[in-house]
Design brief:
- This protein is α/β, with parallel strands linked by helices.
- It has one domain: ABC-type transport auxiliary lipoprotein component (Rossmann fold).
- The radius of gyration is 28 Å and the shape is elongated.
- The termini are far apart.
- Helix 2 crosses helix 3.
- Strands 1, 2, 3, 4, 5, 6, 7, 8 and 9 form a nine-stranded mixed sheet that branches.
- The protein is 23% helix and 32% strand.
């Protein structure tokens, strides 16, 4: 039934509610809600050694508290970074980390350290209340990316070869006394892996995971040489 607005008395509050409702129904019938768009991005996780068997863990080993890694500001996001020349970087829209990069780096290093002899546990922030540690560990990541020429553009020939580059990691690790946070040991590690095809982001994630393993080996070897705090 058609409703003539001229026949309604707008002095009654209830009439306004009816009018607004009718207008809302009319507009809703003309609007189609947008369907969610499927993401074209591929997401990657850093990988490391398998988690140790807690039933056979060394209960006399060191207990380490790993602080949240500090990242160079350009790395502090989920888009994977590639470097092209000394000053140019590119953020990939379609190849991304599946978690915050500082969390992924911390998790990977913690698992690698726990797999080493002489280390009982490595706890990530947030630490359980009342937890005590033999040492604190801080990581500062300066570079964590692929390096190489730009890939062939959309106008390139189908048989154009994909250039090669390398993965690159640079970080500083610092071991601290938990009592007063004095520095017990510190070092800087640079690690590269060559033979990376610049369009293979799965291989890049794998290479960077291996670089973190190298860092964990260096840290673990230094930890077990320190005198345990009393």
């Amino acid at each position: 039934m058609a409703v003539s607005f001229s026949s309604l008395s707008f002095r009654r509050p209830g009439v306004w509610a009816v009018v607004i409702g009718l207008l809302g129904l009319s507009v809703a019938g003309c609007v189609r809600l947008l369907e969610p768009r499927t993401s074209d991005a591929t997401y990657y996780l850093l990988d490391g050694p398998p988690a140790p068997d807690t039933a056979s863990a060394d209960t006399t080993g060191l207990r380490v508290g790993l602080r949240t890694p500090r990242l160079a500001s350009y790395l502090d996001e989920t888009r994977i970074v590639t470097r092209h020349g000394p000053h140019a970087i590119r953020f990939s829209e379609f190849h991304r980390w599946g978690e915050d990069l500082d969390q992924g780096i911390g998790r990977t290093v913690a698992r690698a350290l726990e797999a080493r002899p002489g280390i009982q546990s490595v706890e990530l922030v947030p630490w359980p209340r009342g937890t005590t540690f033999d040492y604190l560990l801080q990581l500062h990541v300066f570079s964590f990316e692929g390096v190489g020429p730009s890939p062939p553009g959309p106008d390139a020939d189908d048989d154009a070869s994909v250039p090669e580059g390398h993965s690159q990691m640079s970080l500083r690790w610092t071991i601290l006394d938990p009592a007063d946070e004095t520095i017990r040991a510190r070092d800087r590690i640079r690690h590269q892996q060559s033979g990376w095809r610049v369009t293979n982001f799965r291989a890049l994630a794998s290479n960077l995971g291996r670089s973190l393993q190298v860092a964990a080996d260096s840290i673990g070897a230094r930890l077990v040489t320190l005198d345990r705090p009393q």
